[in-house]
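Milestone 3.1: sequence recovery, worked example.
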């Protein structure tokens, strides 16, 4: 049903990659669609901290359905058995809420929580589409691809993993707020107002204990820089308390950075030290930022290393493997980056020009043409 140019379809958005989901949400809200978000309320097993998606979606007043589900873990931990037992529960929850809301479409952004939602939608006869952010698709989207109508891809390198008739390369949708150069957070804004070259250190929204520990123990390496350190929402082994002990005027640590503020931080940064998650790598490419990347070694199918190689092969990044990570290898990587900074910056600019544009608009165009032919 539609009235003028305003549409009244309900759309469920799910998945573990928040940044492109927020970009689509911004575009859908302008069109008048009703949005419901299926996600996880808690950051990770064993944590009491709220997830990034719950914080951001709730802030926007969008209904948030907490889907408690499990995943197939890549190593055995004390949470493995309980996680496996949650898989059927997550499917039943998804099925219940899909039947309750009866959306016109499900849009998935990968991650283990998306699979029970996509499969449940297929059983109920509800169409789904999915977007893959990584160069090497995750396990969830490989399963999802069997049940969705269309698979949108960030990188051309991902095309061989999916059927020709279903796939389309569009790049990675970015929220409008990502382009904001002035942070909304007062503490971050005051820190960025300081003089000096900024190094942004992040392990992703949940954080990386390995990277955090290395920075805590070697913060003196950065005496000549401003250091903004995102420790992550998961608070692995008390990382938040450890960060709070560092009292240096050139160092600021926070657990979570909003999409608006991360855009400002990336723009202000001279150098980024980071994991190589899909959205991070896209941000670095889109903003032409040189980086030192430390891929997560247990990421599915070597996803993070494949992502990092896109930037390394473009000569805009240096890779330090986690196995080789130490004070000396980090120092060597920083020295190499700064010594050859003009070359890295120029290479990053060259890569930036090759990226697909208007990704969110392409998604909206497909959704609108499908639901309102």
């Amino acid at each position: 049903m539609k009235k003028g140019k305003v549409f009244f379809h309900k759309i469920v958005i799910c998945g573990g990659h928040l940044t492109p989901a927020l970009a689509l949400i911004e575009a859908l809200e302008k069109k008048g669609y009703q949005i419901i978000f299926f996600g996880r309320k808690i950051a990770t097993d064993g944590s009491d901290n709220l997830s990034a998606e719950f914080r951001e979606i709730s802030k926007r007043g969008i209904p948030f359905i907490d889907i408690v589900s499990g995943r197939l873990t890549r190593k055995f931990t004390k949470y493995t058995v309980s996680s496996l037992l949650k898989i059927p529960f997550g499917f039943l929850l998804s099925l219940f809420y899909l039947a309750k809301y009866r959306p016109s479409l499900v849009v998935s952004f990968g991650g283990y929580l998306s699979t029970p939602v996509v499969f449940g939608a297929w059983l109920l006869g509800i169409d789904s589409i999915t977007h893959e952010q990584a160069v090497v698709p995750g396990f969830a989207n490989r399963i999802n691809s069997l049940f969705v109508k269309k698979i949108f891809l960030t990188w051309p390198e991902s095309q061989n993993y999916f059927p020709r008739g279903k796939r389309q390369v569009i790049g990675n949708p970015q929220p409008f707020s990502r382009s904001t150069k002035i942070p909304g957070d007062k503490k971050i804004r005051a820190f960025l107002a300081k003089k000096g070259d900024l190094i942004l250190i992040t392990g992703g929204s949940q954080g990386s204990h390995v990277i955090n520990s290395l920075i805590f123990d070697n913060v003196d390496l950065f005496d000549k820089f401003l250091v903004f350190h995102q420790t992550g929402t998961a608070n692995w082994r008390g990382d938040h308390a450890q960060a709070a002990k560092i009292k240096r005027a050139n160092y600021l640590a926070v657990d979570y950075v909003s999409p608006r503020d991360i855009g400002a931080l990336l723009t202000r940064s001279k150098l980024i030290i980071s994991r190589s998650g899909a959205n991070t790598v896209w941000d670095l490419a889109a903003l032409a930022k040189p980086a030192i990347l430390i891929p997560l070694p247990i990421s599915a199918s070597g996803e993070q290393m494949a992502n990092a190689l896109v930037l390394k092969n473009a000569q805009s990044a240096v890779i330090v493997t986690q196995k080789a990570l130490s004070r000396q290898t980090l120092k060597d990587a920083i020295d190499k980056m700064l010594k050859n900074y003009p070359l890295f910056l120029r290479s990053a600019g060259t890569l930036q020009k090759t990226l697909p544009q208007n990704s969110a608009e392409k998604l909206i165009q497909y959704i609108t043409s499908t639901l309102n032919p």
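Residues 2-171+356-371 form a domain with the Rossmann fold fold (CATH 3.40.50.2000). The radius of gyration is 20 Å.
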